[in-house]
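Lecture 7, part B: from sequences to assemblies.

Below are the input chains for today's worked example.
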Amino acid sequence: MTVGYIITIGYISLWVNGMTIAERKEREKNLRREMILKSAKKIIATSGVEEMSMNQLAEATELNKATLYLYFASKDDLIDAIVYEGLKILEKNFQESDMRSKTGLEKVLNHINAIFAFYRENPVYFYTFNHQERRKASLRMETPFAKEGNKIAARIFEKTAAALRSGIKQGSIRKDVDINAFLILMYAQIYGVMHTIYTKEDVYRDVLSLESATIERSTIEFLQYYLEVIN
Amino acid sequence: MTVGYIITIGYISLWVNGMTIAERKEREKNLRREMILKSAKKIIATSGVEEMSMNQLAEATELNKATLYLYFASKDDLIDAIVYEGLKILEKNFQESDMRSKTGLEKVLNHINAIFAFYRENPVYFYTFNHQERRKASLRMETPFAKEGNKIAARIFEKTAAALRSGIKQGSIRKDVDINAFLILMYAQIYGVMHTIYTKEDVYRDVLSLESATIERSTIEFLQYYLEVIN
Amino acid sequence: MTVGYIITIGYISLWVNGMTIAERKEREKNLRREMILKSAKKIIATSGVEEMSMNQLAEATELNKATLYLYFASKDDLIDAIVYEGLKILEKNFQESDMRSKTGLEKVLNHINAIFAFYRENPVYFYTFNHQERRKASLRMETPFAKEGNKIAARIFEKTAAALRSGIKQGSIRKDVDINAFLILMYAQIYGVMHTIYTKEDVYRDVLSLESATIERSTIEFLQYYLEVIN
Amino acid sequence: MTVGYIITIGYISLWVNGMTIAERKEREKNLRREMILKSAKKIIATSGVEEMSMNQLAEATELNKATLYLYFASKDDLIDAIVYEGLKILEKNFQESDMRSKTGLEKVLNHINAIFAFYRENPVYFYTFNHQERRKASLRMETPFAKEGNKIAARIFEKTAAALRSGIKQGSIRKDVDINAFLILMYAQIYGVMHTIYTKEDVYRDVLSLESATIERSTIEFLQYYLEVIN
DNA sequence: TATGAATGAGGGTTCATTCAT
DNA sequence: CATGAATGAACCCTCATTCAT
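Predicted structure of the full complex, as structure tokens:
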């Protein structure tokens, strides 16, 4: 049961148990936005990013096509929003991961783990990241979301950089590792592995009896080998 | 002047100076096919794979749109043909590379180099490989070219595998390298680095002062570090 | 400080210092109406009549789109209101012009001048007059504003007619001028010249070195030539 | 009955009674083009230029919407084609008119007549001319048709200029007429009169008992009065 | 009074593909 | 073998307008 009473002053009515009408509307709007995003992600998960059309999305959400445009300025904007969402989740995962890690090396390895886990749970984000990266390379348009997304991406990148630096300082990571080069290679490695898993998982399982979990583990060991101090 | 004479038996006519009419026609057909592919690659190089339309291609080749379909069953088939072509080139490059390499380690590193060089000279193949891989993952349609392409890909893959095996045997590569795992990681690494270069080259150059050539070199050193025997 | 007191009888409250609440509300409503019209004209001035959308207008006025419909029954009605406004201004200009003119001929010529000046200062009205005239020809819908506007147009027309009649009577205008025919031709002439100026000004300036001011002057001389008594 | 026989040489077949297959195809293509234009003009005649949609046109022609784009690059191009067509007709009418005229004055007056007759028979051209003039003023895009159309327009304009010059020379037109100024005013006058007729014909007929034929006649007399030499 | 949200209808354009010839 | 012509389906997006609140 919800307890509350109403105060009305002029045009403004408050439902006094913590939420004004304006707030409720705001919340409802966000819910609908998220519902649209959810539908979009579902479609992308099954048919791919470029295959998702606003027509399809309108049908899936049972909304009018024009309504979608009340929540997102364009199809591109919508995809940027998904990307943004994904990046936010990933950043949070990194934060949590850092709290569970002690040495710099541990942090880095847990970052890799976090990314794999993230993509494993939400393949959609891999598709959309990939799509927008390729798209943006040619257009370089900066929608609000894209801009904000870039900032998060930079922060994520920097988190791993910091872990590398602290690892080197503490001695858990080799001194002669070039941080920038390693960062690029590491993210490229992960990207390539994910691409491999998404496009050839079945082949590798059938031909080489390699599960994707195994491939992920190998990736981590591989990168770890490069970082580790040799005694 | 071409010397020759014609024998006609029923419907079949031979132009007897080394080449039958059927052969000549076959050759002409191939020439036109290649001309079409060349145009397609040019378009892809400038506008991307999904942006290349059959309309555009018809205009560029000065052929009728319907004619294109005499040479390729579908747009997809045409792209598969480009992929196939690329794989053939790459295989040849591998063969030449192997001839210049002595130890197993050298062979592997030269393979990597060969791939980078290949993509550097023909970005088109990266776009098309990427495109078809992502596409095929969901459709898994097996056009003749796709099938044949897979065989070449397997042979390429196997070449590196052989190099790894011989390197281990000879002692130029660490004994405890898991060949399959490394192969997957290596190709994923290269793929990821290429993606990085194509989508973020400018960013890395501007922000980190890293040229793509440098990144490629780092990749090789990175992989080499993993393979090398430590004294 | 505003002195006043309130009388309430049933639902009706009066704020007795000269203006009833109803009156104040009426006035506020008019202010907002005019604000909307002002924004609409600004948009039309830059993008044209058919390009002005209710969306744009809502944004420009910082009002909700639905709110616009509280002040104007439809987009068409809104444009009719602008037309009406323009006609009112023009009528006033005619009145002022008449006060500065002596002979009938002078009055007519000053009318022409007044129209040119009016359009020069407010091109928006030319666009909207033109737009609605063409539109109404096929639909002939009679919104309240359109009706009222027609009345003003008739009065304006009549003012020039009166000037012509008095000119003939006084002897400043040729006796054998057919008033109705001349009126139509004169308004058509002005309309055509305005259209020419708006659509081809640059051409005429570049090719014939004719400024629009010159064209306007020629128009007046041209019409004057027809009216003038020859000695 | 059509007499003819066929000669086949290689790929080329001739239907020997005056027309090759290629020619016939060409002719058929032109017929279809004209059929489309005819439908477009019909729609424009009833609903106006901006109201004509490609959807509507596809329905009217019983062609697929995409098919329309085989004949016209865009809606704009289609309208330009109508404009071009109209200008060609008008130019021809001018030529015929010139042949029937003796003095320069006669030529000019017959030009005016020719324009009125032209618009009377094909109101569509007035709508489209008007539409494209207003449109082009802001975009100034130069489709092939628009370019060619401009050339015809210039020739038409020049024809009247020549008539004026010769009239002045011969003495049928007043010496102190400024040719450029008059040309602009004359075309503006005609344009304005046509606009008046199309948008207010019924009003003038009902209120002033003025038929459009009468208005046209007045226009000619009006312009004639300005040109004529006074004795 | 004012508004946020929603919508049906339609805009022009492009796509890969397939006929009959 | 080659082509001109055609097409259905889909694309993203925008419009003026109307609800319930």
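Note for the exam: The longest helix of chain A spans residues 179-208. Keep this in mind when comparing with the next example.
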